[in-house]
């Protein structure tokens, strides 16, 4: 189903709301309010993961659909006497692109804008090839002249910041900006809930989980999956589109923007869950791409599948160019196909499904 103007507005609002790892509450409140309209109940835990549940038939399995809510960013590490901020990374922030970027800190008195300093090209020593700056070489200018003025702005060591770049439409179907990884996943979950609410009643209970702290190891997903105790899980994240220049497909696979969601095979991905995803994609004419996993997925799937006695799980990913940058780019056609895939999967699960590997 094509996205409505209201859907796009919610997506943009979600993307514009800073939610760095460990400080996801602003975005989570926005997500929970949206999800509540299509769910029987919404719950959250001590660290701020939130989940919305649509009840199913009695004794039917529980399907968990999961995405992560946090984004990469920076944290104040040190304040100089002259009022400049030294920073550390939150998650996998790419410090190679950091200089000359705008940044927004979440201060105790409200948002504080700043700029990551960039010494003018005229003044840099460029006799040898310039190297990517180390994180500790970065500095932020918030317009202060002293450590005291920084404090007056409501800033101190430990407070987080994110790049201030806005989200925008690159074309009629392609979106670019920061935090699409993986606020886009949370958006998809709300769309799936709406799709399930507006169609044929599903047998399984369906829980949509928007988890915190994925970027530092999947902490939120681990805690919430333990509490929810689902029978089967599909994790939604983004994956690298390899169709831009300079990417070796023999090394990174062949995934195209606009080619549909990708399903991952191997390691943590349960073969029976993957096969069901392929089946419902074929039945509903949903384009599907394929990736392999040789050791681990690098997503919340890695912590969900080992929860309690083991949860049959699989990873579905939306293709993205330029991940962990300020110009992450996705195609809304892939988003729409992902919504259709997850809704069809949820509807396909009945009381007869166990998703077990039969050995005995």
Describe the protein's architecture and organization:
With 360 residues, the chain is of the alpha+beta class. It contains 9 helices and 17 strands. It has helices at 5-16, 25-36, 147-152, 180-197, 219-228, 249-252, 271-283, 301-304, 332-348; strands at 41-44, 50-54, 62-68, 73-79, 84-90, 102-107, 110-116, 140-141, 160-163, 168-169, 174-177, 205-211, 232-240, 262-265, 289-292, 313-320, 328-331. It has an 8-stranded mixed β-sheet with strand order 1-2-12-3-13-16-14-15, with helices on both faces. A hairpin with a 4-residue loop joins strand 4 (73-79) and strand 5. Helix 1 packs antiparallel against helix 4 (180-197). The protein is globular, with a radius of gyration of 21 Å. The termini are far apart. The model has no long low-confidence stretch (mean pLDDT 96).
What keywords describe this structure?
360 residues, alpha+beta, eight-stranded mixed beta sheet
Sum this structure up briefly:
The chain is built from nine helices and 17 strands.
How are the SSEs placed, and which strands pair?
Blueprint: H1 5-16, H2 25-36, E1 41-44, E2 50-54, E3 62-68, E4 73-79, E5 84-90, E6 102-107, E7 110-116, E8 140-141, H3 147-152, E9 160-163, E10 168-169, E11 174-177, H4 180-197, E12 205-211, H5 219-228, E13 232-240, H6 249-252, E14 262-265, H7 271-283, E15 289-292, H8 301-304, E16 313-320, E17 328-331, H9 332-348
Parallel strand pairs: 3-12, 3-13, 13-16, 14-15
Antiparallel strand pairs: 1-2, 2-12, 4-5, 4-9, 5-8, 6-7, 6-9, 7-8, 10-11, 11-17, 14-16
Helix pairs in contact: 1-4, 4-9, 7-9
């Amino acid at each position: 189903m094509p996205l409505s103007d209201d859907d796009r507005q919610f997506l943009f609002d979600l993307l514009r709301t800073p939610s760095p790892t460990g400080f996801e509450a602003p975005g989570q409140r926005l997500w929970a309010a949206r999800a509540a309209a299509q769910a029987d109940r919404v719950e959250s835990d001590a660290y701020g993961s939130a989940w919305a549940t649509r009840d199913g038939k009695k004794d039917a399995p529980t399907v968990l659909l999961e995405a992560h809510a946090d984004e990469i960013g920076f944290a104040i590490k040190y304040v100089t006497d002259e009022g400049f901020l030294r920073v550390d990374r939150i998650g996998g922030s790419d410090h190679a692109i950091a200089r000359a970027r705008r940044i927004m800190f979440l201060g105790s008195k409200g948002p504080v804008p700043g700029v990551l300093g960039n010494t003018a090209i005229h003044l840099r020593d460029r006799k040898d090839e310039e190297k990517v700056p180390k994180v500790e070489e970065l500095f932020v200018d918030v317009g202060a002249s002293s450590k005291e003025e920084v404090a007056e702005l409501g800033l101190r060591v430990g407070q987080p910041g994110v790049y201030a770049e806005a989200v925008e439409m690159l074309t009629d179907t392609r979106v670019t900006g920061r935090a699409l990884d993986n606020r886009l996943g949370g958006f998809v979950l709300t769309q799936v809930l709406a799709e399930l609410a507006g169609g044929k009643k599903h047998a399984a209970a369906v829980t949509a989980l928007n988890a915190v702290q994925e970027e530092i190891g999947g902490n939120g997903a681990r805690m919430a999956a333990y509490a929810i105790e689902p029978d089967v899980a599909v994790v939604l994240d983004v994956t690298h589109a390899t169709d831009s220049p300079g990417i070796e497909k023999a090394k990174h696979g062949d995934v195209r923007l606009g080619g549909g969601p990708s399903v991952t095979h191997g390691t943590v991905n349960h073969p029976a869950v993957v096969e069901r995803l392929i089946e419902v994609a074929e039945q509903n004419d949903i384009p599907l791409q394929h990736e392999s996993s040789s050791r681990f997925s690098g997503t919340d799937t890695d912590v969900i599948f080992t929860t309690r006695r083991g949860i049959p799980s699989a990873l579905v990913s939306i293709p993205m160019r330029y991940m962990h940058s300020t110009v992450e780019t996705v195609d809304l056609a892939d988003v729409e196909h992902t919504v259709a895939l997850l809704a069809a999967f949820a509807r396909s699960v009945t009381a007869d499904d166990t998703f077990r590997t039969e050995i005995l």
